[in-house]
Amino acid sequence: MSYRRRFGKDNSACDSGNDVEGSASGEEANEASKSLDHEVAHLTKLKSRPHQHLRGVLPGKLRLPVSTLKMLMGRESNYSGRGRFSSADACHVLSRYLPVNGPWGVDQSNSPAYVSQFSNNGLFFVAGFQGGHIRIYDVEKGWTIQKDIRTKSLRWTITDTSLSPDQRNLAYASMSPIVHIVNAGSSTTESVANITEVHEGLDFSVDYDDEEFGIFSVKFSTDGRELVAGSSDASIHVYDLQANKVSLNIPAHTSDVNTVCFADETGHLIFSGSDDNLCKVWDRRCFVTKGQAAGVLMGHQEGITFIDSRGDGRYLISNGKDQTTKLWDIRKMSSRNLYPRITDHDWDYRWMEYPGHLRTSKHPFDQSLATFRDHSVLRTLIRCYFSPAYSTGQKYIYTGSSDHAVYIYDLVTGAQVAKLVHHDEPVRDCSWHPTYPMLVSSSWDGSIARWEFPGDDQVPTVVKPRVRRRRAFY
Fold it and tell me: Do strands 144-150 and 190-192 pair parallel, antiparallel, or not at all (unpaired)?
């Protein structure tokens, strides 16, 4: 797909109603729109649609976003009777100011950046690098370093990090059965494992004696009492932090579990994605048979690299090595896998381009609500996310890409609304601030870059030292 202009060069359109332009072809956009004649489309519109008194459409006129000026005038005249914007009104305004200007340099490392995420409240930002280096930045204090962490027992790379909901503890994982916990709230800035601070080790291996056992994904529960992990032994593991032991092992898939997350704040449901091409749903309240999933979601034709939950226990998105992002509703899941895994064994995503003849093929039992294409999922486990609920009403999804960019798509129409180009290597992870129009991308070129709206007039040069390359497979 192509787009009419590169965002960040022209800000004047942001109040015109035309700032979010569809770049999908007519056929693709129509297909996405039809597939989202669904509850999630209506929920998204409700969360980002202004008051009915402001959105009247005259005959023969297009239904365009209500201008910010009209929204402010309506608020001043108390159109809602409450004297303020509703959350939907605020999302309608804020969701049009995409974080596309920049970038401004946050940090630069001599090793590839693998993971980077804002804390839930947006006050802190965590970035992890292949060289075993993790940094926590204080966003409100000019991105100063709150914590500089040198990890313990690292095998290959930092595969994932997770900051506890109260921002007190940071968990980090690598291709090892041990997940380490660091006190992120301590006064010690330089945290060198077991020298300046103790990095407590949590053993997820249980009865396994496998030197190749590694953890690809780790996440805190909403209450901070548990960690869920996906591993190279095709299993899901839940660690009870109060009991200090693994409380649940699920032989979940037939290949590496690349990604796991809790579906909502209750912690009952777990989503998982694997190299067996399947997304699965696990309900901890009704484990009748060990390893029996509550449901299976089919549609990807290659392995799953990442899953993000919408947070409502119902919808999720996934990135796949078939070069697509898919949107799912777990109410459409099957009780079992109805389609045998078919893989082109001559293709390896780590160093080969995706075969052209597979790009147009479709899964015969595709259960997804919508499919988003344009970005590339090659060389590493590229991550995707819903945009923030507070500022956008989760109106967009966004993803890193192996073609060195960040892509933002409209959830309902499927249109590509922005492409952020700066990096020289794959963008493995990216994170949208929960309240500000700010997005941070992290890349294998070692740079952490910040995109904003509107941003400063002057864009400083981001220094890119030569990075010593190591072939990375995860």
Answer: parallel
